[in-house]
Amino acid sequence: MTEAWVGLGSNLGHREGYLRAALAGLAGLGEVVCVSPVYETAPVGFLDQGAFLNAVACIRTALPAAEFMAGLQALERAGGRVRAMANGPRTIDLDLLFWGAEVVETEGLVVPHPRLHERAFVLAPLSDVAPGLVHPRLGKTVRELLSELGSLDGVVRQADSGADQ
């Protein structure tokens, strides 16, 4: 069994509903072990779009990494995800952040996620549930990576947080 860490994001339509539906779908890929609080975050990259809701979940799975990733992409399609532009608006975004303590590099998959250490919208919720998780390439904990970012402007934990609520 592998602990897969997945970042969830939505900034179109009923954002909370898309997060809840994605979490329900993740249960079909393995056991959902934990879910972070939900954060509202400013967009990154393409800035002319609405704010995101972001969370992180840990799923214990027996699937191989490539099959798990294919499952994430199927959940995105089921949630109405359209890939019209890089970093553009989306109903649901599911990113495979960590695959246990492994480094995976194939033509269609790179894990740990290559930019997670630069993204407060990933590190803040991840730090709530796994602050001591070590990035296998960088040798630093999630808490350390988050503190290196400095400002958390535009990343706000929601009062009644929890994507599964």
Helix percentage: 25-40%
Structural class: alpha+beta
Give the topology string: H per helix, E per strand: EHEEEHEEEHHE
**So, CATH architecture?**
2-Layer Sandwich
Shape: globular
Mean pLDDT: 89
User: How far do the termini sit from each other?
Assistant: 26 Å
Low confidence ranges = none
Please, how many domains? 1
Determine the number of helices (DSSP H or I, runs of at least 4 residues): 4
Annotated CATH homologous superfamily: 7,8-Dihydro-6-hydroxymethylpterin-pyrophosphokinase HPPK
**What is the alpha-carbon Rg in Å?**
15 Å
Largest sheet, described in full? 6 strands, antiparallel
CATH class: Alpha Beta
How much β-strand is present in the residues?
25-35%
Can you count the beta strands?
Answer: 8
Q: Would you kindly provide a written description of the structure presented here, covering whatever features stand out?
A:
The chain has four helices and eight strands. The chain is globular. A hairpin with a 2-residue loop joins strand 6 (104-106) and strand 7. Strands 1, 2, 3, 4, 5 and 8 form a six-stranded antiparallel β-sheet that branches. It has a two-stranded antiparallel ribbon with strand order 6-7. The relative contact order is 0.23. The chain has 165 residues and is α+β, with helices and mostly antiparallel strands.
Q: Could you outline the blueprint of secondary structure elements for this entry?
A:
Layout: E1 2-10, H1 15-26, E2 31-35, E3 39-41, E4 52-61, H2 65-78, E5 93-99, E6 104-106, E7 109-111, H3 120-129, H4 142-149, E8 155-157
Antiparallel strand pairs: 1-4, 1-5, 2-4, 3-4, 3-8, 6-7
Helix pairs in contact: 3-4
